[in-house]
Amino acid sequence: MPSLFSPIQFKDITLKNRIVMSPMCMYASQDETGKITPFHMTHYISRAVGQVGLIMVEATAVLPEGRISANDLGIWNDVHIDGLKTLNDELHSYGAKTAIQLGHAGRKAVLQSNAYAPSPLSFDETSKMPVAMEQGDINRTVLAFKEGAKRAKAAGFDIIEIHAAHGYLINQFLSPLTNIRTDRYGGSIQNRYRFLKEIIEAIKTVWNGPVFVRISANEYDEKGNTIEDILYIAKQMKSAGVDLIDCSSGGVVPAAISSYPGYQVTYSETIKNNLSISTGAVGLITSGVQAEEIIQNKRADLVFIGRALLRNPYWPKQVADELNISIPAPLSYKRGWK
Predict the structure, then answer these.
(1) Range 300-304 average pLDDT
(2) Which residues neighbour 123 within 8 Å (Cβ) at sequence distance 6 or greater?
(3) What whole-number distance in Å separates Cα of residue 113 and Cα of residue 21?
(4) Sequence-separated (6 or more) residues with CB below 8 Å from residue 283
(5) Residue 132: exposure state from Cβ atoms within 10 A (0-12, 13-18, ≥19)
(6) Which residue from 53, 221, 279, 292 could staple onto 272, CB 3.0 to 4.6 Å apart?
(7) Which of 297, 285, 288 is nearest to 321 (CA)?
(8) Using one digit for the tens of pLDDT, what is the confidence trace for 167-202?
(9) Are 84 and 42 contacting, i.e. CB atoms less than 8 angstroms apart?
(10) Interatomic CA distance for residues 163 and 171, integer angstroms
């Protein structure tokens, strides 16, 4: 029976446990350069010291206009590689594996430059009207994801996650709420999936490692993607060689979401059970008992931890103690590691 602290393998990458630091934007890159800063080094390395199995770096923009904010990390230029490589070297030294979430904000970019989207629909009344992407814009963006994957490889990441959730660009193509195109990228679910399909295929031409994809499995709108649509998308991703689906929800359109501990776990469970593909559960997972139940009952293969790890970089140690499990101590911390 799998447990929270049992290893798991994706292709040739073995994670020492099932705990993932969920990608969380830090808005901490300085001077709009998109580069790693000393804050990022402290932020991520402390969680590796705390024995997180997989550290996933926050949504990192494949194009300058794809940033959510002017202070987001970027991977649109080779100048970003060295900082990310230095970070990876440190994270690996503590036994963690590393991932990067490649993303593009689409219409949710809050920048001075134009925002781009599949259709000219703003997120809300305070957001700017995005430019509807033409075929050349689509081609350029798909290429940018490919080039981002090449840079991620050069920087030493073990896993790539494609950000197709939370109402950002890929999610905007996937959802009928935000995609009203009449060309080959709009209309049917098959057409709405095409943009993500092309991105996965492009990344796989330069990347042989594991590929995860984060999706919004519930759009909280009756006119949005149905569970049948989500299962179709997931099935296509499995066929394309995606290794894990990271199951989040929301963000496509403004919505009131009733959240509670583990409120998104049913999505990872449904996709895993219907398609026999590895999934990740995320959303208000805060205790060891809760995380262990998810893994032992095979409701997901990984748990993605966000706010609990912001509160406590040593959350794996906390939950190991809660579960009466002994985990290795970093050499420098052995005196305080019971």
Answers:
(1) 98
(2) 107, 108, 167, 253, 254
(3) 31
(4) 248, 249, 259, 262, 263, 264, 265
(5) middle
(6) 279
(7) 288
(8) 999 999 999 999 999 999 999 999 999 999 999 999
(9) no
(10) 8
Q: One-letter amino acid identity for 320?
A: A
- Please state the rounded mean pLDDT for residues 49-78: 97
What is residue 88's three-state secondary structure? helix
Kind of pairing between the strands at 13-15 and 8-10: antiparallel
Q: How many Å apart are CA 234 and CA 196, to the nearest integer?
A: 11
The amino acid occupying position 322 is E
Q: What superfamily does domain 8-336 belong to in CATH?
A: Aldolase class I (3.20.20.70)
Instruction: Please tell me the number of Cα atoms within 13 Å of 27 on its side-chain side.
Output: 6
How far is residue 62's CA from residue 156's CA, in Å, rounded to a whole number? Answer: 17
pLDDT at residue 88 in the model:
98
Q: What is the mean pLDDT of residues 78-90?
A: 98
pLDDT per position as a tens digit, 18-40: 999 999 999 999 888 999 999 99
Contacts of 334 (CB under 8 A, 6+ apart): none
pTM: 0.97
Measured over the CA atoms of residue 111, residue 250, residue 56 and residue 320, the dihedral's sign is: positive
Compute the chain's Rg from CA coordinates.
19
pLDDT at residue 64 is higher than 90? yes
Q: For the chain, which residues make up each domain, given as ranges?
A: 8-336
How far does Cα 260 stand from its chain's mean position? 21
DSSP string, 187-241: SSHHHHHHHHHHHHHHHHTT--S-EEEEEES--SSTTS--HHHHHHHHHHHHHTT
Q: Give the C-alpha separation, 140 to 132, whole Å.
A: 14
CA angle, residues 58, 200, 273, in degrees to nearest 5 = 85
Q: Give bridge partners of residue 10 from the DSSP assignment.
A: 13
Give start and end residues of each alpha helix (H) in the chain.
38-49, 81-93, 135-154, 169-174, 189-204, 227-239, 265-275, 288-296, 307-311, 315-322
Phi then psi for residue 180, to 5 deg, are -115, 25
